[in-house]
Amino acid sequence: MRWRTLGLFAVRMGSTSFVQSSALAVTLLAARIGWTRERVYAFLLWNLMLAWVPYVCAAALRSLHQRGVRTRALVPLFVVWLVFLPNAPYLVTDFIHLRWRDGAPLWFDAVMLASYAWAGVGLGAASLRICSSIVRARRGPWTAAAFVAISGLATGFGIYLGRFVRLNTWDVATRPLTVLENALSPLAHPLDHPRAWVVTLTFALFFLAAYGVRGQELLRTSSRTPS
Question: Which of 12, 68, 191, 227 is the one with CA 20 to 30 A from 175?
Fold first, then answer.
């Protein structure tokens, strides 16, 4: 019975498709390394692993929510989820590494990078869907809507900090003052940081659009899944 419940949970959350898309991405990279003997794109594996962290956090939050754990006890895990969330759609920005390289055709590298971006955006959007459903169940639809909007903006801002300021998730723990300084500067002097806001809004809108599309897919999958 426990395994059946876990299986239905995996289907409803779309984790099977995420495993498949991640496997495709890893396979393409392995094929490229095997053919060219170059590891220039090996960093994608680490980025993909980081993209799985918010999904795993969201799945854990859903499990705790279903067990009736108090909201206050869920807050730390929500914070961890939000800190790691930008890592998922961040994979889209790895397209900046796309250029002609000896040994592999450009079109192959484009498809490979697209597979990682696809997996990352899907994982991030699904994790937001899970967390927003928890917020909706505990605090109502309006709070959930605000939660989604804030999470989208935080994700866009996190991508800006990661791609352009070159901070990473671990800096939150190892260099908190540096992270705080770089995060507060665009807030305190918004006109001096136009790129920060353009990048934040662009990726926030992109990610929220993916969230909306992914939500419709999950609803259709859930309606076909036997209870």
Answer: 191
In this predicted structure, what is the pLDDT of residue 151? 97
- Cα distances from 6 to residues 1, 16, 108, 150, in angstroms, run 9, 12, 36, 30
Q: What is residue 1's predicted lDDT score, i.e. its pLDDT?
A: 42
CA–CA distances in Å: residue 48 to residues 2, 88, 100, 119, 125: 29, 7, 23, 8, 14
CA dihedral (137, 139, 143, 148) in degrees, to 10, reads -40
Once rounded to an integer, what is the mean pLDDT over residues 174-181? 88
pLDDT at 92: 97
Q: What pLDDT does 15 receive?
A: 57
Q: Residue 101 pairs with which residues in a beta bridge?
A: 104
Asked if residue 94 belongs to a domain, the reply is yes
Q: In total, how many domains does the chain have? A: 1
Q: Token pair 């869920």 is at which residue?
A: 74
Q: Which residues share a beta bridge with 156?
A: none
> Is 15 inside a domain boundary?
yes
pLDDT tens-digit profile of 209-223?
999 875 554 444 433
Query: What average pLDDT does range 11-26 have in this prediction?
Result: 75
Helix (H, G, I), strand (E, B) or coil at 85: helix
For residue 24, which of 114, 146, 154 has the smallest C-alpha distance? 114
pTM: 0.85
> Residue 148 corresponds to which tokens in the numbers above?
């989604």
Domain extent at residue 47: 10-224
Find the DSSP H helices in the chain.
2-13, 15-36, 43-66, 71-84, 106-139, 141-163, 171-174, 176-188, 194-224
